[in-house]
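Appendix C reproduces, verbatim, an entry submitted by the partner laboratory led by Prof. M.T., so that reviewers can inspect both the input and the predicted structure.
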Amino acid sequence: MSSTLQVKLPPATPFFKPRAQAAASGSASLSYALLLLFLLQLYSSIAVLYPALEAVRPALTIGGLALAALLLERVWFSRGFVLVRPDSFFLVAFACAAALSAFGAFWPGLAARSTADFLKILILYFVVLNCVDSEKRLRGVVWTMVLAGLFPALGGLRFFQNGNTVEGRLHWVGTFGNPNELAHSLVILFPLAVVLASELKLSRRLLVWGLPALYAGVVYLTFSRGALLGLFAALGLMALLHRRSSARLVTAGLLAAGILAVVFYWTRGEGFSGLGQDASFQQRITTFQTALAMFVHHPLFGVGLTCSPVAWPFYAPANLPYRTWLIIHNTFLQALSETGLVGFLSLSLFFTWTLHRAWKTARLAAAAGQEKFSNLVRGLLASFFGFFVCAMSGGFVLAWFPYILAGLIGAASRIQPHAGASAAQPAPAPTVRFQWNGARSPAA
């Protein structure tokens, strides 16, 4: 007589939920996790700090995996690929203008490589737009950016303490090697850090409030005038948008304190006074004139993306007191001179429509009773407005961070309010969903 031992096993948990259930709950998280990892490596500049990692090209590898995971998840859940209109199409139009600029560029190879770099930024924008499909994920990305900003901020302070500066100005490595690039990236994080800190309990709020203070201090030590103006603009907009008068007064006080700090403690040789005799300021004015001259001779598609320094000797005014070849210190004029009227209009419309989208989303969310969500979007609006002001005095066409921020604003506009919202829920942004069978249909 034989006997058997029977063991009752628990029911197996499937690796994937059923498609409909998973799509409804937003459980496809691999692409989202890879997006957060990409942001961490972007801010940490880990491949620059550890050159041995350059062999695996972490940015390209992680970004490619995030895109592949997103595509697989969209196919598996039959959700299609979403674009917001018209913003996404303006950005695609700029990418096309950049590609066409390479054919008549002063250095076609450089323009082609720069266009390839911009295509990576474009892909990241669409990954952000499609991965961030809930308020929880939106906050997760914002928290990741704000905390990851500690890498360049603390790294720059360490360089500054050791005397490693650029003409006395704080900088770091990689993307943040230029003081102006470092400054504008932290200007973007300042309003987001303020919003996140204001939502916490008092015990945690005091700790997190150190982040915007740190970022403002680092921006000050970069001695970037454009970034300081952007920081003040973001603070001023936050004061205007806040719904509580006490908070508006506190923000206005911080703004006044920042202005006084610049007036009395600014140590850069070129400040805000005597701009008529300021060599650096005059050089920037010269770059504006040169950019317009390039546009006049190449009005349709410009001299090629990032090729304005190459074309500089042919268009700069004669008899300059210096022989340096300069970049165009204005994002919009950079687009105008390098990608012509088509690229300038596309990029300008993209930036201005993104500002409008953020303002409208915050207003509609507040009207629907989603005050916490509205505060977060107002932070995104203030951040993008701060960048917009920085762009007036810096060439940031190929900077990663404004496009990441634009992707978050686009994602925020299409996120449905969570359960419990009032009946006056804001309608999601107009979108277009590309189905995998080739059809195109409007999406809610």
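DSSP finds 18 helices and three strands in the chain. Additional entries are available on request from the coordinating office.
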